[in-house]
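User: I'm putting together a teaching handout on how sequence relates to shape, and I'd like one worked example. Could you take VPS9 domain-containing protein from Lottia gigantea, show the sequence you're using, and then write out its predicted structure as tokens right after it?

Assistant: Happy to. First the sequence, then the structure tokens directly below it.
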Amino acid sequence: DALKIPSRRLLRDSKNNPLNLPNSGRFTNHIIMLFNDGLVHAQNSTFTHHPLNTVWIESHSSEAEQQNVIVVTTPEDTLTLVANTPEDKADWFMTLNSTINKNLHCDKIMRQNSSERLTPPLIRHVTYTFTKHCQYKDARYIGFMLNGKMHGQGELVWSDGRTYYGKFGQGLQQGHGKYTIPTEDGLEIQEGNWKDGMLNGYGTIKYATGDIYKGYFRNGMRYGHGIYNEGQHMSHSASIFIGEWVEDKRHGYGVQDDILKGEKYMGMWQDDYCNGKGVVVTLDGMYFEGNFVYGKLTGFGLMLTDDNSCYEGEFQGVTQLQGKGCLTLPSGDKIQGVFNGSWNEGLKINGMFNKSDHVLAGSKPKSHIMYGKLSVPADKKWNEIFKHTLALLGYLDSKKNPNKAWEVVAVRLTQGQKVIKELERRSPSKARTLSSSLESLQTIPPYNTGVLSIESYHKILQYLTKAFDNPYHPAGNLIDSIVDVFRAAYIGIGAHPRLLHHAVQEIKSYVKRMYVVVRLLFPDLPSHTGPVHIYPESSSKTKGIPTSTESAENFLRNDSEEEPYEVISAASLLYPILLPKIYPPLFDLYALYNDKDDEQCWERVTKLNRQGDMALMAYLGIEERFWLMKEILLQDKSQKLSAPRDQCYASAVETLQQLSTAFSPIEKLKVIEKTFEEITETVQASLKDDHVWCMDDLFPIFQFVVVRAKIRHLGAEVHMIDDLMESHLEFGELGMMFTTLKACYFQIQNEKLRH
């Protein structure tokens, strides 16, 4: 009676057309009934109704013992049915397929020259409510199914309010999808790439509490590199962690920015605790370095304060001095002994006071013997970011195949094109820009020819510049991640002058590890990161480009200066790409480190600039023939000699001012070189001859240009070039010019001004 519906018609049943379940018991009664709207399996007093649009039929005929078997598949059941004869099986099979086709509104089309009816489509759009499935019980599915399993785009809605919308594969979440979970605090939203019903790969979770995780997953757990924003303070997160995860716990290198405490931890983690080498900096200028055990600074460590006090000794927590140690005061005086107490609240000291023989001079933060030795080495930071990119490009395979790497690049760029098409509706201008960038990346320069010329190198450089700027290229993803971690580490509380050394070491490490990725794509590049000479394609030396350090040294020794060449290195290739993206936080660190010296220099520059050109040149000791006042007075004969201001060497001054807008060391050095060229051209135009400089004549003129350029953070600029300039440039022309700029800065700082 429960099956009686006016529109329902019985088409076939197993009583009149035998169809049996193998291995069924003697006392069980199974009946298979085919209606015009469903297939019913009745067992004793119970029955199960399967809508025909969720029924798939398969015939087993390959093996003799299964030649009469029909397999019926539904989303939650699989029935293996056996007919008595092949003819009975064929009748059932044809009737089932025909009825399913009618139900799916398919035409009854016969294949040409065949009496076999077309089988129903394997992929169907269905609406189905699960009743038995342990994971999906009472959930309603709307979407595509393949052979009884959710497959393709679909939506799953549970009775408790949970929803998943996205891709499915073989009955599980598979591909990109969005999973929403209602909780007492609100909605939790999980979005990203799914595999086997769990988040795998990159994804995000927005927790009901307001916390957000963005990063990588494995089997539904946070695993790999990720960012966790926790809590709220004003309009920002109260705490931000960026680093490595293992099974939902912080594990490996990471940076924790605790805004409420005003502290930043940069170091190793284990089982969700700070554990291992690490550094802590605070908003009030404190710096701690040492070994952490379950979140607590323990054992021997280093403490540096804002006033240059230094403690090296035993700790039992940040600011908690406990045990033997040595405290060096800003004056250089030392206290050695046993310390007990808090630096902020009071210390009990049992030790000896040693008076310093000399007063420590200078305003920069002092370096100490242990500084940097108790922290995580730069090459061990952010390994997951580089591992992910290298694994993606096939570097971790036994054979490093550039062709495979380029196949991956092609796939990623194709995926990017699909994303851009979807973006066209929301932001046409942005979509056009990205599309143009992707098109330019379709042309790949020669990458595995065995030789490297100046021409091919510049093609590679041009390609890499575009690739690192494109978010859909693996190189673009890599540099975006590097920029994110660098900003996370050195912005906010991390904008601490004592972290400058760590930042510089990280940048140098980035370049080495980025170069490994670049060489995977372009094996023609030198295998080592040091300087190498390259020549034009027409040169006989092009085919002999060295690929090892030893051959490179021999190559440089035998080099002839007759042919044009360029000197390349990993830094010269990657600094112009990387540094512009991280320049603001990096230069802030240099500005903070050199703040007091630059302030002193700026005061002197301001005083010197109160003088007119002639008075300033006379003060700096420039010979009168280089004053170049005749041309200025000829332009305006009415003005006095003391009147001209900011007119002498104006082109050189304007050129040097570009120092602040250049990002990489080589760009800054070229600005300095161009400044010297402008000075020379100005003098030669005035004296009407090819003037040969001696340093006694050139130095005061260059100092005049430096003063007039009014570079606010000149010390920071000099310090940055000094740190990042490649060693092979130090003893060439560029190195000499830079040394002259350093000497000018020192002279301005230390020379006594006349009142």
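A couple of points you could highlight for students: Residues 107-117 have pLDDT under 50 and may be disordered. Residues 535 and 565 are 5 Å apart (CA to CA).
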